[in-house]
Amino acid sequence: MNYLTLFLLFCAICAKSDDGFWWSLPSSSVVNSTPTLVQHVSTFVNIGGDNGNPYWVNLPNPALAGNTLIMGMSYVFTAGETNGVSDDKGNNWTQITTIPVSPSAGKGVSFIWIATNVIAGTDKIRVGLKSATYGWNANISEFYNIAAVNPIDTSASAASNTPSIGPGIITTATAGDLLWDYAYDNNSTGTQGTLTNFVFNNAWIPLSADNQFGMMAEYQVKSSAGAITSTNIVNSGSTEGFNSLIVALKPAHQGTAPTGVRIVHCYHTLFGLSNTNTIQFPTSGNLLLVETSFPQYQNQITSFSSSPANTWTYSDWPANGQPQIEFATNANSSTAMTILPNVNKASNGEMTLVCYDVTGVLANPLDTTCGYKTNTFPTTTQLAVETNMPTITPTTNGIIFAVSANGTGPTTNMFNTFGTAILDTVTYGGQSDSDSMDNADAYFHIFNTNAYTNNPTLYMNSNPVGDLPQSSFVMAWEFTAAVSPGN
Question: Are both 342 and 210 inside the same structural domain?
Fold first, then answer.
């Protein structure tokens, strides 16, 4: 074998290496650099009359080292309004695009912000405004394999009316870009719209699709550079205006892939009880849960259906003043999934739903549950600490879900000695018990790493004080992980 043959053989080995040597062909890194979703959370809106500032959203899972966070955000504009984004780890957030550029007071304004190469454990995101406002919504995604430096390829934004909405045409310069698209219905600024459903086109993958009031997010990885038009069809009973924004982010071999049990999608909504439209809930995991803090005596869930079909299990406690949960194990998931609760209405209006799409649990994962815990404190107390809410002892590692119906909310924070505890409830300054996002109740989960007894502590900031007896009712369920929690 001559030297030329040896040299060519050596080059072939380097080029075929999955990880590559430092001198391997550049194309080997492209194959391993596809932007990939880790998690997504979508909030509801606070309806006019319950103005807030600042706003806090917790990611369902602490972010992983080196990954990218993308946030689409909207609210009703007031004259001179400005906003800024920060988080609990001090990452640098950058505003990418906005629509409209010169908003009018009383109209919805929307933005995309990003933070790249984030610090491991980033979880609590804060949005500060110049003054309190309403109609606030956020959709937040975490991806890995996004360039840490100079990540922006291009972006665009536009206003459009139903039935066809979108930010228009963008032209990318880099193959393999992540395209992330967000839209917000300006009718969300005060009253419920007349949307039926969102129709996602071509290669777009839904992240969220709130057809109760009208917010959506989607993404795709564009294999080749060039022009693309982002357009979605929105079926509605009347013409409604949307803000649409898109950003194209460059790929790179960057960040951390998730392992173990995690929440892929967390979706907060306010289900209109007079609405017969199904709820769009994109999913990909093997455990699906839908929780509500509303008790039976207000609005009892009598049955639950989904498409694709699943076997749903209903769980509450014998006393009908407790929260309710529906869950499906070994679930048949789909990014086109729809769900519909059948509700025996004791009262009119709406009910809060928080939906979880979980991956990494056993096919039959339910480990243990705990009965409801009641905690009552004086009606004159605004700030209160509720301990052992509730006490639950799993037999192995996994994920615990809990919901607390508060007499007078909101719950503003929580703590647990073991594992990683995350308050899913969206909180904001000036939040009252009439909050439309999560009804000012406590939705939370815990990644438990062993068979410890968990005694979560809830922190209350009741508003208004003395409105009702300050009683909280909480229940919890633990689901076993297929492997140790990745967080």
Answer: no
Q: Are 146 and 178 in contact (CB under 8 A)?
A: yes
Domain interval for residue 47: 36-249
Residue 273: its pLDDT value, please? 64
Look at residue 361 and tell me if it is in a domain. Answer: yes
Global pTM value: 0.90
Helix (H, G, I), strand (E, B) or coil at 307: strand
Task: Note the pLDDT of residue 11.
Answer: 45
Task: Identify whether residues 361 and 313 lie together within a single domain.
Answer: yes
Query: Is residue 24 a part of any domain in this protein?
Result: no
Same domain, 85 and 182: yes
How far is it, in rounded angstroms, from Cα 396 to Cα 478?
9
Going across the sheet that includes 457-461, the strands are 383-386, 457-461, 411-415
Specify whether 416 is located in the same domain as 287. Answer: yes
Query: Do 393 and 456 share a domain, yes or no?
Result: yes
Rg over alpha carbons for the chain, rounded to the nearest Å, is: 23
Exposed/middle/buried for residue 159 (C-beta within 10 Å: 0-12, 13-18, 19+): middle
Same domain, 224 and 285: no
Residue 7 is assigned to a structural domain of this protein: no
CA–CA distance, 312 with 295 (Å, rounded to integer): 18
Query: pLDDT tens digits, residue range 205-230?
Result: 999 999 888 899 999 999 999 999 88
Greater confidence (427 vs 317) lies with: 427
The count of domains in the chain is: 2
Residues 304 and 244 in one domain: no
Yes or no: say if 371 and 392 are a contact pair by the CB < 8 Å rule: no
Residues 378, 431: one domain? Answer: yes
Whole-number Å distance between alpha carbons of 193 and 209: 14
Rounded (to 5) percent helix, strand, coil in the chain:
5, 50, 45
The verdict on residue 88 lying in a domain is yes
16, two tokens: 């075929």
Report residue 409's pLDDT band, with 50, 70 and 90 as the boundaries. confident
Lowest mean pLDDT among 27-36, 97-106, 181-190, 234-243: 27-36
Q: Could you tell me how many residues make up the chain?
A: 487
Tell me how far apart the alpha carbons of residues 293 and 411 are, in angstroms, rounded to a whole number.
Answer: 13
**Distance separating alpha carbons of residues 440 and 431, to the nearest angstrom:** 8
**Res 137: pLDDT:** 94
C-alpha closest to that of 237 among 218, 215, 211 = 211
Read off the pLDDT of residues 256-287 as tens digits, 9 standing for 90 and up: 999 999 999 999 998 876 667 789 999 999 99
